[in-house]
Write a structure and sequence with these properties.
Blueprint (H helix, E strand, L loop, with lengths): L2 H18 L6 H17 L7 H19 L9 H15 L3
């Protein structure tokens, strides 16, 4: 489990989800978010104690993308909790 890569992915997810509360994400932002989600999903060790929480963050971020891309766009809910979960996992990955 590469903690630097996971920290980068979580930070990017956090930043883009937070940005989505203030403005519409561009297609470049959506691509960045999708790449960060993919990185989180592929690099988190399944045997880690917080693997389920990381998978939940990835799933919620994918649902956010789906809501933003639906026609007509839906107002996604749960962004605050997604941001809080990202912060929790970032704290978990931080060097002790």
């Amino acid at each position: 489990m590469n903690k630097n890569s996971l920290t980068s992915a979580l930070s990017q997810i956090w930043a883009l989800v937070n940005r989505s509360t203030q403005e519409t994400l561009t297609s470049a932002h959506e691509s960045e978010l999708s790449a960060a989600i993919g990185s989180l999903e592929s690099e988190w060790d399944d045997s880690d104690i917080y693997a389920g929480r990381a998978a939940h963050v990835a799933m919620c971020a994918r649902m956010l993308l789906a809501a933003l891309n639906s026609h007509p766009p839906r107002r996604p809910s749960g962004r605050r909790m997604l941001i809080e979960d990202c912060q929790f996992l970032l704290h978990y990955l931080a060097p002790k």
